[in-house]
């Protein structure tokens, strides 16, 4: 059997197997829509705020208007006391609290200073940070206008007064994900993980289903079968990868900094390592419903250990080291540097090398596994399952 | 029913994978996830500092940054080197103090300090942005203060003039912004839900292999026996999660976590009903598992803990309702954070009720029995 013929046989087997087709084509398309769905609005806006205005003066009302004008905050209702406000927050419909103390305006005009209290529901971090950002800005705006009024009343010039309040200018800007959107944050890592997991599952189901039967996979050598299988899945994943990294990234507004050549050069060892790992693990299974289960349970730990959700420097060292054996981990971090941060190929060279090392190791394991499995094919003894 | 239960337990004993799923495997995964997040508070995050001024004032700025527990400044001699480190994700932010910073401050020319933080790492980036701005503002306070004094304000007045409105920010319910308290419970619940889904799917799939079909007893009692057999075992895992969170890690909890048990049972029942419908429709083991996986794998994103529910598009909010874990996490947060009473919590659990509608298709499909030949 020629290699081309083998690849065709493999492709036929993949498409004909409904469980693989569901995972590879259905799953990949479905996840492309479903996973980013919650984050489509990108940034949390208009968090509901409860205001306790114990001052009730023109200045306190101006402060409330300032807060309401912030895109991050919506002044949803007032409350007579802090206890009442806390009751509202406990209902789960409101997430923040602003307390303006009695005598707020009077104290400020007398030059005595006043204290505002902010509270945010820290059970939800994005909500909390949006609320605090909005409230701090509103508070600073109010403070500025009070300071300016005070200084002008003491006879300072407008320009001099503004300067002595802000001796320097702080220009804080996000780099790489300028809108601070949630989709560009999550999608790059997540989509690579989906490609990784579905590829492992696809190769896993195909292998697990074939070991106890005879067919074209018996007529070629283990090495040929391995090459043919990787080539067949590689072809499919070239298309799926192009769909994810090209069309989907564009659709979800994820930045694409690297050129096609760099991406291709980086993704080849990723696919080879993953497909080989898939074939290697498929030799551990004889039940077709097993690979999906194992990979599913591993998904969340892999996602969190890959370093884009939770900083690598905070993850215990042994976990980081162990995770390097999973092709998705160096691939996600390398691709992030290459495509999202715009570092050159030399910046991902170590990850690239790591992926080739993994590819070689898994190819060897897969070859060995295939040899062992094929020897068992005609024996009636059920081999031990993983 | 007793015979059916014995049959289930016997089958469980003979299946090492299913046995692992109801016992040690999810526990190990849960402990690994907790270990991963065990740092709890991001601190000492590397930040590139490029001091082009190299004056006592700019060094003062650096000291203020180093004083922040979150920031760990690393000095870079030139801007391109720092940018390179930023591109390689070796540092999460970059602070540039310009040439002539000190002179411009003294001549009141309002110099600009640039802060670039990595928005691609959203969580870390936002945290650093807030802390760097705070550190720089603090560093500037003595300067503004001495200016006020020079203008003839008395020390007390000078303080108030700099900041007439003091603010006091309180993180409600999660006092020290602990990420273990924030992320680990929903992550573990999501993992638990996946485990429950797999356990039920495997248990149901076994009916496809057994040569003796259940024509005599009917399919419904068999389904019932599976639920009765596995729900208590899965419940133990759920209680392990709560033991870990509230017992061992001592996460703050506003009311007794025991009140969550009804919601946990409701979650298990809802997962079982969904898996049963899919099983009766598909009747092929790999396809049942694949389909259930597609459905349940993204459940974590829809819980609304990492991204607020009311900022999700309507389609996501509807999809969210299909996931039992979303209903559960609402009860969980209401109890842990807000300390709602047991009765209120029970009424919240009523949101699980629509899942009971699945009994209808299950009853209809079960009466048709399983197909004779499987693909």
TrEMBL record, chain A:
Keyword Endoplasmic reticulum: no
Secretion signal span: none
Pfam families reported in the protein's UniProt record: ABC2_membrane_3
Keywords carried by this UniProt record: Cell membrane, Membrane, Transmembrane, Transmembrane helix
Membrane-topology annotation of the record: Multi-pass membrane protein
Protein name in the entry: ABC transporter permease
Localization annotation: Cell membrane
InterPro entries for the chain: ABC-2_transporter_component (IPR051449), ABC2_TM (IPR013525)
Principal location: membrane
Entry keyword Transmembrane: yes
UniProtKB/TrEMBL annotation, chain B:
Highest taxon in the source lineage: Bacteria
Stretches that traverse the bilayer: 21-41, 182-204, 216-239, 259-281, 288-309, 345-366
Entries under InterPro entries matching the protein: ABC-2_transporter_component, ABC2_TM
Subcellular locations according to the entry: Cell membrane
Keyword Hydrolase on entry: no
Topological relation to the membrane, as annotated: Multi-pass membrane protein
Principal location: membrane
Residue ranges of every copy of the ABC-2 type transporter transmembrane domain listed in the record: 17-360
Alphabetically ordered keywords of this record: Cell membrane, Membrane, Transmembrane, Transmembrane helix
Pfam families reported for this sequence: ABC2_membrane_3
PANTHER family the record matches: INNER MEMBRANE TRANSPORT PERMEASE YHHJ (PTHR30294:SF47), MEMBRANE COMPONENT OF ABC TRANSPORTER YHHJ-RELATED (PTHR30294)
The protein's name in its UniProt record: ABC transporter permease
UniProt organism field: Shewanella litorisediminis
């Amino acid at each position: 059997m020629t290699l081309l013929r083998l690849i065709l046989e493999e492709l036929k087997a993949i498409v004909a197997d409904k469980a693989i087709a569901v995972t590879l084509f259905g799953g990949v398309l479905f996840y492309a829509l479903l996973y980013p769905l919650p984050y489509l609005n990108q940034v949390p806006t208009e968090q509901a705020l409860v205001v306790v205005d114990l001052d009730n003066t023109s200045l306190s009302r101006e402060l409330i208007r300032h807060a309401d004008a912030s895109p991050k905050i919506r002044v949803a209702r007032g409350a007579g006391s802090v206890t009442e406000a806390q009751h509202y927050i406990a209902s789960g419909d409101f997430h923040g609290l602003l307390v303006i103390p009695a005598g707020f305006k009077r104290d400020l005009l007398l030059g005595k200073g006043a204290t505002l209290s902010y509270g945010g529901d820290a059970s939800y971090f994005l909500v909390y940070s949006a609320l605090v950002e909005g409230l701090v800005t509103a508070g600073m705006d109010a403070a500025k206008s009070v300071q300016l009024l005070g200084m002008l009343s003491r006879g300072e010039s407008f320009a001099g007064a503004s300067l002595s309040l802000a001796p320097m200018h702080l220009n804080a800007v996000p780099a790489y994900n300028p809108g601070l959107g949630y989709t560009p944050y999550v999608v790059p890592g997540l989509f690579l993980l989906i490609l990784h997991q579905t590829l492992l599952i696809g190769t896993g189901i195909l292998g697990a289903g074939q070991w106890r039967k005879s067919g074209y996979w018996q007529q070629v050598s283990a090495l040929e079968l391995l090459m043919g299988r990787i080539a067949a899945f590689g072809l499919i994943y070239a298309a799926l990868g192009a769909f994810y990294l090209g069309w989907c990234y564009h659709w979800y507004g994820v930045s694409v900094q690297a050129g096609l050549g760099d991406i291709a050069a980086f993704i080849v060892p990723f696919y080879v390592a993953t497909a080989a790992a898939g074939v290697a693990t498929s030799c551990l299974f004889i039940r077709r419903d097993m690979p999906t289960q194992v990979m599913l349970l591993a998904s969340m730990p892999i996602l969190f250990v890959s370093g884009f959700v939770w900083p690598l420097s905070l993850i215990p060292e042994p976990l980081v080291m162990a995770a390097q054996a999973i092709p998705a981990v160096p691939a996600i971090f390398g691709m992030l540097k290459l495509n999202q941060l715009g570092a050159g190929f030399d910046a991902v060279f170590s990850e690239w090398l790591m992926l080739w090392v993994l590819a070689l190791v898994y190819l060897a394991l897969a070859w060995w596994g295939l040899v062992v499995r094929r020897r068992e094919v005609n024996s009636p003894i059920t081999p031990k399952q993983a | 029913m007793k015979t059916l239960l014995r049959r289930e337990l016997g089958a469980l004993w003979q299946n090492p994978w299913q046995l692992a799923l109801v016992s040690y495997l999810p526990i190990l995964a849960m402990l690994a996830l907790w270990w991963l997040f065990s740092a709890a508070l991001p601190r000492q995050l590397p930040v590139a500092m490029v001091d082009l001024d190299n004056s006592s004032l700019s060094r003062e700025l650096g000291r203020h940054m180093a004083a922040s527990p979150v920031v760990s400044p690393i000095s870079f001699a030139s801007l391109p080197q720092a940018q390179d480190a930023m591109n390689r994700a070796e540092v999460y932010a970059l602070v540039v103090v310009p040439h002539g910073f000190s002179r411009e401050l003294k001549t009141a020319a309002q110099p600009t300090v640039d802060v670039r933080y990595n928005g691609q790492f959203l969580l870390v980036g936002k945290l650093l942005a807030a802390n760097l701005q705070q550190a720089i503002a603090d560093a500037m306070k003595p300067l503004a203060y001495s200016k006020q004094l020079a203008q003839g304000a008395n020390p007390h007045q000078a303080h108030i003039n700099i900041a007439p409105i003091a603010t006091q920010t309180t993180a409600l319910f999660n006092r020290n912004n602990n990420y273990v308290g924030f992320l680990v419970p929903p992550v573990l619940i999501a993992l638990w839900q996946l485990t429950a889904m797999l356990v039920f799917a495997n248990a149901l799939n076994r009916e496809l292999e057994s040569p003796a079909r259940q024509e005599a007893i009917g399919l419904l009692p068999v389904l019932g026996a599976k639920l009765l057999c596995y729900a208590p075992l899965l419940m133990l895992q759920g209680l392990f999660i709560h033991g870990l969170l509230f017992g061992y890690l001592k996460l703050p909890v506003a009311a007794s976590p025991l009140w969550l048990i009804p919601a946990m049972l409701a979650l298990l029942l809802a997962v079982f009903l969904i898996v049963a419908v899919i099983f009766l429709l598909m009747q092929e083991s790999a396809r049942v598992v694949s389909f259930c996986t597609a459905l349940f794998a993204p459940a974590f994103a829809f819980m609304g803990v990492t991204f607020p529910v009311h900022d999700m598009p309507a389609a996501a909010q509807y999809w969210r309702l299909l996931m039992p874990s979303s209903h559960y996490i609402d009860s969980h947060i209401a109890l842990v954070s807000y300390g709602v009473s047991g009765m209120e919590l029970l009424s919240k659990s009523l949101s699980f009720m629509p899942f009971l509608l699945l009994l209808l298709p299950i009853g209809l499909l079960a009466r048709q029995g399983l197909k004779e030949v499987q693909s």
